[in-house]
Structures
1.
Amino acid sequence: MNIYEKLQSAREFIKNSDTKKQGKNTFSKYDYFTPEQVEKLVFDACKQFGIIDLFEMKTNQFGVYGILRIININKTDEVLTFEQSTAIPDITATNIAQQVGGAVTYTKRYMLMTCFGISENSLDFDDDKVKPAEKKEQLKIQTKTSEPETWLNIYTNKEKNEVTKYFKNAWQAIHNQGKTIADIRKIYKVSKETETALNNETFLQ
C-alpha cells in the first residue's frame, strides 16, 4: 500500500476501535480522549499498517508551529506533512521548559487527532446536547475576525467559582478544538490572568 492507502486504513482501524473515552470534563459534562489514549490509538494503528509519525515544533516570523510527518516505513520517501500554528502558554509557577513541553504535548495531540480522524462529539455544533445559545458562542470562536473590543472575563462570581459562558467556550475551543490564544485574541481582549486560566487544562474540570 502507498502512504495514502495506509493512512486511510489506519483511520478505519481507529474508527472501528472500541476504546472508551477516559477523560471526563465534570464542568461541561462530556467525555474525551486523553492525550495518552490518542497516542495509544495512533501507535496501534501505525504499527498495524507500517507507518510512523514524527512530530517537531519550529518557529518562523509568524510564531510557533507544529510539524507532523507520517512516513511509510516500507518506502521511506513517501511522507505526508501537516503543519499547524500554535503558541507556548505563559503559565505561572512553571519554567520555560515545562511551558514548551506542554505546548508540544497538546499541539501533537490535536494534530494527531486531525490527521487520524479522531473526533469528539462535544465539538459538533449540530449535537443536540449543545444548547442553541452555546452553539452560537462556539461558532463565534471560529468565525468572528473583527478587531476585539471587549475583555474576556473569567468569572461572573469568583467567590462561588462561577465562570462566564464566554470564558467556558474559549477554554473548550483551546482544549477540545486545537485553537490557540492567538485565535481567542481575534475575538476578545485577553489579560495575562485570563491567558493563564485558558491554558490550564484542568481549570474547568
Note: The radius of gyration is 18 Å.
2.
Amino acid sequence: MGRPINKKYFGALGVDATPHIPVEAAFIGGIIVNATDGGSDVYIVKQKSSRRFLVHGNDSGEEAICKLVNKVTDSSAVLEGEMVIIGYYNGQAVNVMKMSNRIATDFSNNRYKWSVSDDSTTNVLTLEDV
C-alpha cells in the first residue's frame, strides 16, 4: 500500500475541526449513496489499500469495502463494491484512482499532492502539482 493515509482524514464530514476526505458516491447496503443526496451520507472508515476503503453509509448504518472507479461523470452508475472520490485541480474535477499519505493519482496516472479543506458547507479534496 505504500504510505497509508493518516486516520485523521477519515470519518463523518462536519463532525469535528479536522476536514475529512469526501466520498462522492459509493454502493453500500444495496443502494448507491451520492454526496449530492445529502453531502455527508457516506464516509471513509478505514483504508484497506491505495485503491480500496472501508466506507460507512449513515442512513443504512452498513459498511462495505469499496474500490475506487472512474465514473466521475455519472456517479449514479457505481456498482456493488465501487466508490468515487473527486478532487479538484485548478477548478477542474479529477477522478481519483488511488491515494497514499500525501499523493493522489488520477486515472491518467497524473500524480498530485492533496489536501482537504472545509468551507463550512462541505469538505473539498484539493489537488496540486507534485
Note: The chain has no helices and eleven strands.
3.
Amino acid sequence: MFIIRKSLDRGHFDYGWLSTYHTFSFSAYYDPKHVSFRSLRVINEDIVVPNEGFDTHPHKDMEIITYIIDGELTHTDSTGTASKIRRGDVQVMTAGTGVEHSEYNRSSKPVHLLQVWITPEKNGLKPSYAEKNFPEKLRKNSLYLIVSDDGASLKINQDVKVYSSILEKDHRLSYNIQSGRGAWIQVISGELHVQDMILVKGDGVSIEDESHIGLLAKEKSEFLLFDLG
C-alpha cells in the first residue's frame, strides 16, 4: 500500500526568519491523520534566513537527524559540541535523558535543511552527538546508507535505516522491503516516480505491505528513503 503525502498538504508557517513545512503534526500544527509513521515522528523542512535561528531549547527521549540541503548551520549543545554543518553533512543527536541545543544560520545566505525526529527504542538513553559528510559522488545513482541502528553509518537507537540518493535523469533503482517492515520516501528535489506515482519536491509517500519499490528519476532528483521496523 502506497499513500502519498503531497507537499502542498503539509503544515506551513512563515515567521519571517523561518519558513517551515511539517509533514507530521508538530508544535502549532496538528492533523490527527498525520501524527507519525511507525517510529518516524517528525519531518520538518526548514529555511532559515541569515543571522537567525533557534535559540537554546531542550529535547528529551528523541533521536534527531539534521540533513543539510543547502547553506550552513551552526550547532551548539549541552554535550559540549560546537559545529558548523554544510551541504552534504548529516548530524545525529540522541536527546535521551535531556539535552539543550541551539541552531543558528551565521552565514550570509539562507540555510535549507530537513530535521527528522525518530522515537528511540527506549527512553533514558545517554545524550550523544555525531556528524558525518556524505559527498554527492557516494550518493549518485545509488541508495547510500547514512543512518542506521547497527553502526554501519551514523548510529541511532532505533530499528531504522536511512538512505540518501541523488538520481540523474532517467536513472532507475529498486529497493526490496523485508516482510513486516515499512518505508517512507521523502523527495527533496526533482521529479521521482515511485512505481506509477509521481512525486515532486516536498512530497512524501508511506509504504506498507509491499515487498518491492521501483524508482525512476524523470529529472535529477534527491530523496531520502527510510526503512522502518
Note: The chain has one helix and 22 strands.
4.
Amino acid sequence: MSNDEIAKQYDDFSVTYSDNLRDQDKIGNGKFYEIISTLDFKNKKLLDIGCGDGSDLLNYQEMGAMPVGLEPSLEFIKQAKSKSAHLEIIQGVGENLPFEDNSFDIVVSKYALQNMIDVPKVFEETARVLKKNGYLVILSKHPIRQFLEKVKTYDGKEINYFEQKIVDSYIYEKKIHLREPTHTFAEYFSAKVLKNFDLLEFIEDFDFPASEQIDNFIYPTFFVAKYLRR
C-alpha cells in the first residue's frame, strides 16, 4: 500500500472524519494540548505534519505561531482552505518534507505518523527542518493497538509484531474504516531516532469507543511524545 493509496482513504471520508473529530477524540486531543501548553508559540514558525482540515492550524495561529501545514489529502486541504483562505498548506508526506534545513521552531503531528510507511525517515526529515533546541510533539496510534488490529485482521495466523503489515482499523464508533501500516515502538524511540532528539515527555492512554476495543481488552490506543532537537 502506497502513501498515495493511504491518502486517498482520507479523501473519501474527510467530511465524516472532521464531523466526528471534536466529539470522538477528546482524550487524545486533550493529552496532546496539555503537553504543548507549556511551549511558547509566539512568533514561532510551526510545521504541522498531516494537518487535516486545518482546525489545529487555526488554534496554533491563535496561540501566536506562524503555522504551515503539510497534508497528503486534497479533500482535507480544500476543507482547510474553506476555513481560512490564508492558511499555508502544502500537499506532501512526512518522509519527504519540501522545506529547507532549520526552517521551523516547532513541529507537531497528530494521528498522521502511523499512516506513513517509513516512520524513521519522517524523524530524519523532521530533524533536518527543525532548528536546534526546537520541539517535536506527536500524537500517534499505539503499536500495541496496531498489533491487536493485526491479530484481528489476519485472524491470528502467523502474526509477527516486527513485520509491517497493512491492517484494518476502525475509528469513531466504526463510522470510519482505515487500512494502515503497522509500526513498532523502535520506529519512534530507537537509538537512531534519539541521536537527534531528547525525549522530554511521554503519555500513553486509551480512548474507547473512539477506537475500536478488541475483545474487551484494556490497552493503550494512542501515545503522545515530546522531543527536543539536539
Note: Strands lie at 45-49, 66-70, 88-90, 104-110, 130-141, 166-171, 176-181, 197-205, 222-229.
